[in-house]
Amino acid sequence: MKKRVVVGLSGGVDSSVAAYLLKEQGYEVIGMFMKNWHDDTVTISNECPWLDDSNDAMIVAQQLGIPFQAIDLSKEYKERIVDYMFAEYQRGRTPNPDVLCNREIKFDVFLNAALKLGADYVATGHYCRKGELSDKDGNLTYQLLAGKDTNKDQSYFLCQLTQAQLAKALFPIGEMLKPEVRAIAKKALLTTADKKDSQGLCFVGKVHLPDFLQQRLEPKKGNVIDVPEQATIFSNGIASDDLVRLTQPYTLTPDIGEVVGEHNGAHYYTIGQRRGLNIGGFEKPLFVIGTDTEKNLIYTGMGEEHPGLYRKGLFIPAADEHWVRQDLRLKDGEWKSYKARIRYRQPLENCTLWKKDQGLYILFERPQRGVTPGQFAAWYEDHELIGSGVIN
Fold it and tell me: What CATH superfamily classification does 310-390 receive?
């Protein structure tokens, strides 16, 4: 009997080719489009309109001769993703909705819907791979591996998946380069072959963030304080007794610098941001190095090399630790060298993980630019993503 796979057809070329390949491999394939969003007032419609994507997904299903249906997950998306995003921005943190969408929607709500259809697996068009390790008793451990195309590797976006979710996941294009995917789509005459890659929230489209945030977070005038370089000089030592000091954000207070302008709400800004400040007259551009949503203050530093943009390490509270490889979870007092990234597409950086009772400390060989609370840090061994966590 054929194995049944439900493919998350997004209306893009990657998921289209994923469905094509699975059908070619002999699976019984069902295409399903997730409708996650109903508010088009904050989407940049010409970038990634969901209606066009849904139609393209349906056309691809027709071209492949596979069943197709759309599923409305907007209620779950609002509760699990959008409400969380607003809460995080309100706290002055910057969430990553794409990581959350994979954990909470694609490989939870969507996966459960697929299982109700009798699916053995769900598949997506992610550029990543799944590996398997077997012990002497035949028990399987699943690996989340980087995609072969290093320019498109999306393993970071799946950094919160569990063993149970990986067991049901297939990534058909993970061994391919993007040009190969395009070539397959053209050869198969798929309507999405030349379609531009989408950007923005998964299955939602590109959102104009200020308009999106202003749905709940009211504009509120506040001061922009420029911080001189010498106020944020850090130490390069990495002795274990320095863990807390080296991984804490800088202490920024109104008396640390001078007021240089106004902003419309501290919750609209994120560390490392340059655009949107609209403050001129400086020798170099200003960058956000800290925010205080309680006092409604933004702290800036002048120039790309301002030390306030860089941190030696970061901390992940124990409750926010996640290990894809549970068998490799560090115990209290243990440490291990890995490579890590703190944002998508960032090159992997050498680091050391130190496990303490209160959580996980990550110290980098080189100070990292724009370490942002609310974002995910993910650590790797060779090409395998081992674990991840929310930056405090």
Answer: Translation factors (2.40.30.10)
